[in-house]
Structure formats: C-alpha cells, structure tokens
Design a protein that fits this description.
The chain is α/β, with parallel strands linked by helices. The chain is 40% helix and 19% strand. It has two domains: 207 residues, 3-Layer(aba) Sandwich (Isopropylmalate Dehydrogenase); 129 residues, Isopropylmalate Dehydrogenase, CATH 3.40.718.10. The model has no long low-confidence stretch (mean pLDDT 97).
C-alpha cells in the first residue's frame, strides 16, 4: 500500500529540519519496508510569499487528500507586521482547524544520555516519560468574539474568548483516557477551575468521561501548580490533559526537562487516521540558515507519523532506537551539547540517525 504524505517545510529552520526527517523516511523506502508518495506544499510565511496566503487553497486540497502531513515550523520576524489573517501562525491554526486535528499528543521523554543536558538535576528527570494531551482546535485560540476595538473614549481594548463546548471537552477527554489506558493509567487534568467557569465545566465533563475508565486514576490540578510541579517533580505525571493554551505553555516547559525544545515531537490527530506531525518548537529565526538546528524533534515526529497514521509501529521504534543510539554515542547539536560530546550540525545529526538505522 502506498501512503500519501504531504510535506510542509514552512519557515526559518523548518526546511532544514524537514530535510533530515525526509532522509530518515527515505531509508525505509529504499529498503522496501515502506511505500510513500510525497508531495511538497507551502504553509506559513512560505505560503504567503509564494501564493499570498499562509494556508493556500492548493495546500488545503493536498492536505485533505493526504494520509499524513509532516510540517516543519512557521513564522518569522519579517511577517510580524502583516495583517493578522495573513500571518504564518494563522496558516498553522487554519490547517489544524480545517482538518479537525483536535487531539495534540506531545510526549516528553528523557533519553538517558541527555540526563545531564537538562537544566534540572539528573535525578529529577531520569527516566521521565510523560505525555501531554493538548486540545488543539478550541479554547481561547479560536473563541469568539475576538478583536481590538476602539471604545467610546477613544482608547482601545483587546479581547479573546476562552470557550469550550461539552462535546469538545468530551472528545479530548476520551483521547486522554485511551492514552492513559495504554500507559501507566494515571491521568492528570489541568485547569483553572478555581477561577474560570469554562474550567468548571471542563472538570465536570472529564470526571463524567472518567466513569467509563475506572481503571484510570484521575486527578485534577490547577495550571499554576501544574507548572510548578512539572519542574519540581515531573515524574509524578503519566498523562496530562489540558486546554489549547495551557497545553502550549506546559509543553514548552516539559520540553526543557528532556534537554531541549529541539527534542519534542508531536502528533495532531482527528477522528480519522490522518494526522499532522511536527516538532513542538517554532521556526527559530535566531539560528535559521546556520545548519545548527536540532532535527531530532522532527525525526521523532516521523516516528509518530509512522505509528499513528501509517500503522508502522515497528518502523517508528527503529527510529526511536536509532536516536537513542546516536545520543549514546555522544553526537549532539548545540542545544543539547555538553562537555566531552561531539558537536554536529543539522545535516550531520540527520546523517548519524540514518547511519544508525542502516547499521
Ligand atoms: P522557537 O521555538 O522558534 O525558539 C525558541 C528558542 O528555542 C530559540 O532560541 C531557538 O533557537 C530554540 N530552538 C527552537 N527549536 C530548536 C531546534 N530544533 N534546535 C535548536 N534550538 C531550537 O520559539 P520563538 O522564538 O518564540 O518563535 C519563533 C517563531 O516561531 C515565531 O514566529 C513563532 O510564532 C513561531 N512558532 C511556530 C511554531 C510552529 O510552527 N509550530 C511553534 C512555536 C513558535
Ligand atoms: C505550537 C505553536 C503554535 C501554537 C503557534 C505558532 C500558533 O506555539 O505549535 O506550539 O501556539 O499552537
Ligand atoms: Mn508552542
């Protein structure tokens, strides 16, 4: 069976890291363990530059026909003054919403060799294996009304709306419980129910869904405490489920537990098998074009793509084992470099993973 993969390199370091991920996919196609048809299209600033839109209609058509999508990153300072609907980030939000990719899985796993690359003490992060389930197509990112208005006195006000419907909470809760069932059966739902009505509803619906999963130990935590607990004692968590914006923030924090934001992959899934796979980090304009970015989050996103959309768990595992091997050999991009290791660039890191896969 030939799988259709749409590749959206995007902006900044996007094209650099995606090129390395494609090298890894090519290992499998060359050895005959995978058959894919790859198409490339524009998203983000690249979409705006080439086609006048951060999510061009041509990209949308290809996205709807794809079995899976691999995305680099979007955004950059040159686009920051565009009208909001034309900004790169809107392209990313549009494709997530358009394909109803409501469930965003962000695993934070500490590879043993990177224990000393984390800014936290090795014993705090050793063996960390945490899954953040982030709601991705609702909440304050999409809620209406939104805008900046001029008030009667001539001053302006800006506003966004944090809104969740019961079905939106129900479906992300189910993904979280199912995820917990396949892991250590502990789920922590993160909210701000001490202040927000929307969180009160969130908590109530999560509790209700939880009745269907008696084997899962459910707990609730306020988001401020959760941020603190993540850096105090992250191994207390197995699966965390939370809203769009809280998940965005907590997953960047969790990334640092693993050594670098350059290590965290993600899968954005809908009710069917099609998914979008991307590193959780951005376009890193400060290092773009230097061949210095860590491609491992993108390479590990390919592993998630193989596992979740293509049903090729064994190939996904081979990638994860190869990454482990490369790190154990002391090969490091700058973001995860520690003394005594061999510092390499983006392409060399990709080549090292390819070599480990073939070896
Ligand atoms: P960022 O994640 O791009 O960068 C934050 C810091 O982490 C930078 O110092 C960067 O150099 C470093 N970093 C990120 N990825 C790295 C990698 N693979 N290897 C080594 N170092 C890495 O976040 P930012 O600077 O806040 O945002 C930059 C742009 O990216 C903005 O336009 C933002 O909107 C966009 N962004 C896009 C996505 C996405 O496409 N999913 C995610 C976050 C931010
Ligand atoms: C992410 C990013 C995006 C988000 C932005 C670029 C829209 O930060 O994927 O984490 O906030 O979801
Ligand atoms: Mn983010």
């Amino acid at each position: 069976m030939t799988h259709k993969i749409l590749v959206l390199p995007g902006d900044g370091i996007g094209p650099e890291i995606v090129a390395e991920a494609i090298k890894v996919l090519n290992v499998f196609t060359a050895e005959g363990s995978l058959s894919v048809e790859m198409e490339y299209a524009n998203i983000g600033g690249a979409g705006y530059d080439a086609e006048g839109s951060p999510y061009p209609a041509s990209t949308q058509t290809l996205a709807k026909a794809a079995d899976a999508i691999l995305l680099g990153a979007v955004g950059g300072p040159q686009y920051d003054n565009l009208d909001r609907p034309l900004r790169p980030e809107r392209g990313l939000l549009a494709i997530r919403s358009d394909l109803e990719l409501f469930a965003n899985l962000r695993p934070a796993i500490l590879y043993e060799a990177l224990a000393s690359a984390s800014t936290l003490k090795p014993e705090v992060v050793a063996n960390l294996d945490l899954m953040i389930v982030r709601e991705l197509t609702g909440g304050i990112y999409f809620g209406k009304p939104r805008g900046i208005d001029v008030m009667e006195n001539g001053e302006r006000k800006g506003y966004n709306t944090l809104v969740y419907s019961e079905p939106e909470i129900d479906r992300i809760a189910r993904v979280a419980f199912e995820t917990a069932m396949k892991r250590n059966k502990r789920l922590c739902s993160v909210d701000k129910a001490n202040v927000l009505e929307v969180s009160e509803l969130w908590r109530e619906v999560v509790e209700r869904v939880g009745k269907e999963y008696p084997a899962v130990e459910l707990s609730h935590m306020y988001v401020d405490n959760a941020a603190m607990q993540l850096v105090r004692s992250p191994k207390q968590f197995d699966v965390m489920v939370t809203t769009n914006m809280f998940g965005d923030i907590l997953s960047d924090a969790a990334a640092m537990l693993t050594g670098s934001i350059g290590m965290l992959p993600s899968a954005s899934l809908n009710a069917s098998a099609c998914g979008l796979y991307e590193p959780i980090h951005g376009s890193a304009p400060d290092i773009a074009g230097q061949g210095a970015a860590n491609p491992l989050a993108t390479i590990l996103s390919v592993a998630m793509l193989l596992r979740y959309s293509l049903n090729k768990g064994e190939l996904a595992e081979r990638i994860e084992v190869a990454v482990k091997k490369v790190l154990a050999e002391g090969i490091r991009t700058g973001d995860i470099y520690t003394e005594g290791c061999r510092k390499v660039g983006t392409a060399e890191m990709g080549d090292a993973v390819v070599a480990a896969l073939q070896g």
